[in-house]
Amino acid sequence: MVATAAVLMVAHMLEVFVWASAYGIVGAAPAGSDLLYFAFVNYTTLGYGDITPVQEWRLKGPMTAMNGILMFGWSTAVLFEVLRRTIKHLAAIGASGFSPADRS
Description:
The chain has one domain: Orthogonal Bundle (Helix Hairpins), CATH 1.10.287. The chain has three helices and no strands. The chain has helices at about 1-25, 35-45, 60-90. The longest helix has about 35 residues, at about 60-90. The chain is rod-shaped, with a radius of gyration of 19 Å.
């Protein structure tokens, strides 16, 4: 479970780096802005507002936020499935504290 959470965290970090790169390539943030910070704020839907995108790319922030919400939801589903399978496996092998009724 911990390994799964760590892999998902790394995947989220990589996605934020991709968004930061995309911001840099298209010039979505004002010159001199911290693109990684800007991408994290948008991806996690914090929306501090201290860095705002340039006018022609103002929809890129909400697109990043929508992507972040979807990916966090997907990550939650993955974690619950890993937990469900772990409980099922522990019940199947008769681990202490788990009964066959826990296998469903």
